[in-house]
Write a structure and sequence with these properties.
Elements: E1 10-14, H1 19-30, E2 34-39, H2 42-56, E3 60-64, H3 70-84, E4 89-92, H4 107-135, E5 138-142, H5 145-149, H6 155-174, E6 181-187, H7 193-196, H8 224-235, E7 246-249
Parallel strand pairs: 1-2, 1-4, 2-3, 4-5, 5-6, 6-7
Helix pairs in contact: 1-2, 1-8, 3-4, 4-6
The protein binds nicotinamide-adenine-dinucleotide.
Length: about 260
């Protein structure tokens, strides 16, 4: 029997026009979820919504949202709640990746990466707390193996993702008595615009290599669909006893 873990659940997913967010949206829709797709790329999110309606007969609404803008983050939650007046799962997935030598990383680069990848999540969760409290909902945020291990030529990115992990664990503790779960997923390298779209850094030290997946039958770089099941699991009631977890999904890229 097909899984229907998201029947009657409203799921808000940021960064859902492409890549990991798109794959996760399709997976949750296939399991009966009602989606709200928030992205800077509104046309892309609308296309995902149309695919959901066509392939699964489900409801999905797209809303414009810029994670770099505090007002937009807070307004986005109000707009999302206007659709169904409830929120069961919030998936904070929008993110950007900038690569450069640390010495050439400007304060502006640093601030933008932190704003999009971390500070937006503070504003979103803060604004969504009353709705999450009412539904005893849950939050899944996209971190990265970079947030656990660090990564050369992307210190701001790694710092932002380490922040996502710390925020997740802190809120899991603080809101456990309210019944709200908080978890994070740490993807390794995944075949998306963000994961493979950037040119190598000039004069990159060749001794600092990208670590490929070691998993039998898998390509060296993961596919967005390899991640979707992990997000769906954590957002579902199958994970009702899971909070404060950081799930690494990297095809054994970082072990060993
Ligand atoms: N691809 C990888 O190798 C990898 C590895 C670890 C973590 N991640 C994380 O996974 C998440 C998804 O990335 P992806 O690989 O699917 O990349 P992607 O570029 O395919 O998708 C990112 C999505 O976020 C949206 N977005 C970007 N900036 C935004 C903003 N300011 N406001 C609103 N939306 C914005 C984009 O429009 C896009 O739809 C990110 O948080 C990323 O850091 C990716």
């Amino acid at each position: 029997m097909a899984l229907r873990r998201f029947d009657n659940k409203v799921v808000l997913l940021t960064g859902s026009a492409a890549g990991i967010g798109r794959a996760t949206a399709l997976r949750i829709a296939a399991e009966g979820g009602t989606l709200i797709l928030a992205d800077r790329n509104l046309a892309g999110a609308q296309q995902v919504a149309a695919t959901i309606a066509r392939d699964f007969g489900g409801r999905a609404d797209a809303i414009a949202y810029d994670a770099a803008d505090v007002t937009s983050s807070r307004r986005m939650i109000d707009n999302a709640l206007a659709f169904h007046n409830r929120l069961d799962c919030l998936i904070n997935n929008a993110g950007i990746y900038r690569r450069n030598h640390f010495a050439e990383t400007t304060g502006e680069d640093w601030s933008l990466v932190l704003a999009v990848n971390l500070t937006s999540i503070y504003h979103i969760i803060h604004q969504a707390l009353p709705a999450l409290t009412a539904s005893r909902g849950n939050v899944v945020s996209t971190a990265s193996t970079a947030g656990l291990e660090g990564i050369a030529y992307a210190a701001a990115y790694a710092a932002s993702k380490a922040g996502v992990i710390a925020l997740t664990k802190s809120l899991a503790t603080e809101y456990a008595p309210a019944g709200i779960r908080f978890n994070a997923v740490c993807p390794g390298r995944v075949r998306t615009d963000l994961g493979i779209g950037l040119a190598p850094v000039e004069n990159q030290n060749p001794q600092i290599a990208v670590r490929p997946s070691k998993l039998l039958g898998k390509t060296e770089t993961g596919e967005p669909e390899d991640l979707a099941g992990a997000f769906a699991y954590l957002a579902s009631d199958d994970a009702c006893y899971v909070s404060g977890s950081v799930l690494v999904v990297d095809g054994a890229q970082t072990v060993g």
